[in-house]
Each structure stands twice: as C-alpha cells, then as structure tokens.
C-alpha cells in the first residue's frame, strides 16, 4: 500500500493548475451564461471535459519530463508518482465538476438567468438541469485514465506507440452512441449499462498501471 505523500501531491497539483483552470473557468462561464436549458449532452460541457482531460495528460502524463526526473531523484518511486498523478488528475476534475454542480444545485444559475438575463426558461426549468453534472462526472472518470494510458503509450519508442489513440477514438465514438441509448434504458438494462461502464473505467485504470509497470519502470 502506497501512502499519500502530501508534498508530492502539492507539487503535482501546482503542475496541473492550467488544466484545472480550463475546467473551472469553462464550467463557471458555461453554467452561468448558457441561455438554453443545460442537459448532460451539452456539446460545450463535453468539450470542456475533453479539453481538461487532454491537458491533464499533456502536463503530467509523460514519464520522461524534467518534472518526473526531478521527483524520481527525490526518492519517490515510480509507482508512487503514477498513483499521485492519477489522484491529482481526479482532484482537478472534481474541482471543475464541483463548480458546475454548485452553480446548478445552489440555484445561482437560475437566479442569474431569471433576474439578470430575464430568461423565460427560469426558474421553471431549473430542476431539469440537476442531473446534468452527473454524466459530466462520468465522462471525467472515463477519459482521465484513458488519456493517461494514451500518453504513456505515446511516450514509448516501441512499435505500436500510437495504438493508444485508438482507445480514445473508440471511447468517444461509444460516448456519442451511448448518450442516445442510455436515455431510453430502463430496469435491468440500466443496471447492466452502469456495470459495464464501471468495468470499462476499472479496466482503463488497470491497463494504465500495467502499461506503466511494463514500459515506464523499465525505461
């Protein structure tokens, strides 16, 4: 069991700040000024999630970066660095997601739309938006380990280093198709969809860690 090193987490959190800012500002602006009723399939919300996850992987997903070498020289094992990179990524995503959820669930968005922008949808339609952040969180949980997997794979000079991109392409295609399918699921089909989603997320995290162990640790 690898303990949480708060000093290491603090360093990686500062490193991930640009990505966190993308998510926090993106969702802050979107949830306050978007004039139509927000749904879980809002394209701008999904774009913010994708952009933040990509930036997180770009900032922290390269084992051959100077920051990684510095941390390794300070006595942190590569397993510890990988674990804290993933934890930092999820914390960054949670920061942006909590901003979106807080603005929606506190009624602040409804107040701004009603009082300042005189939007006729509000406050009547406000309850219909409450479930939207839940799917955004699900996309975060799916894309963070996927992007880290891609970045580890891409950093390798070995054959097939670009194969990680196929993982992202397949996942994004599945998301586009799945949005419409899940909307109509009910009963045990919905439970099956949820279990399948959890399995995919678990496999992506495990696959990222195994790839890290196989390629990064031996590098």
Describe this entry's structure for a reader.
- This protein has 219 residues and is an all-alpha fold.
- It has one domain.
- It has helices at residues 6-15, 17-33, 43-60, 66-73, 78-105, 108-116, 132-154, 164-183, 188-216.
- α1 (6-15) packs across α5 and α5 runs antiparallel to α7 (132-154).
- It is globular and about 60 Å long.
For the sheet with most strands, the description reads: none
Global structural class: mainly alpha
Number of domains: 1
N-C termini distance: 23 Å
Uncertain segments: none
The count of DSSP E runs of length 2 or more, i.e. the number of strands, is 0
Provide mean pLDDT, rounded.
Answer: 79
Shape: globular
Approximately how much beta-strand content do the residues carry? under 5%
Number of continuous helical runs: 9
The radius of gyration computed from the alpha-carbon positions, rounded to a whole number of angstroms, is: 19 Å
Could you give the order of the helices and strands?
Answer: HHHHHHHHH
Helix content: over 70%
